[in-house]
Amino acid sequence: MTDAGAASADIPPHVVETVKRCIVESLAVEPDAVALGSRLIDDLGADSLDFVDIVFMVDHELHIRARESEFNFITRLDFSSPEVMKEGFLTEPVVTRLETWLPALAAVEDKKRVTPRQLFSLITVEAICIVAARRLAAPGAAPPGGGT
Q1: Per-residue pLDDT reduced to its tens digit, 43-80
Q2: What's the distance, CA 94 to chain centroid?
Q3: Helix 125-137 and helix 48-62, axial crossing angle in degrees, nearest 10
Q4: What's the rounded Cα separation, in Å, for the pair 97 and 147?
Q5: Nearest to 23 by CA among 114, 129, 117
């Protein structure tokens, strides 16, 4: 079993269903088109505004603050910083941090040559589910029923 498979097993079914529903609504795609491995940009046609919309919808539906988690890290990366970029590629510490919630990074052959464009193309439905599940499991998170 791959790390991605292990991550999928830890995602509660209601999180997967909620994330998929938000993606279907935001992108106006058929539900059958949305699988855990579907990439938001490359497979489902999302853009950066769609991504923000999906994260806000997931926040609202699950009563969490996913936008203040790993997604905040990726959207605030300073690609002009030497800690983030070296010779046009993401640095190893950045890639290592991203690997914990971007299962598609496991398929990248050379992790020392990941570009920002490639990074954004690796955001999958599963990645959003992982972040949402982690936020739900965090201390002080809303109960699974979404109560306040």
Answers
A1: 999 998 898 899 899 999 999 987 666 777 777 788 89
A2: 15
A3: 30
A4: 31
A5: 129
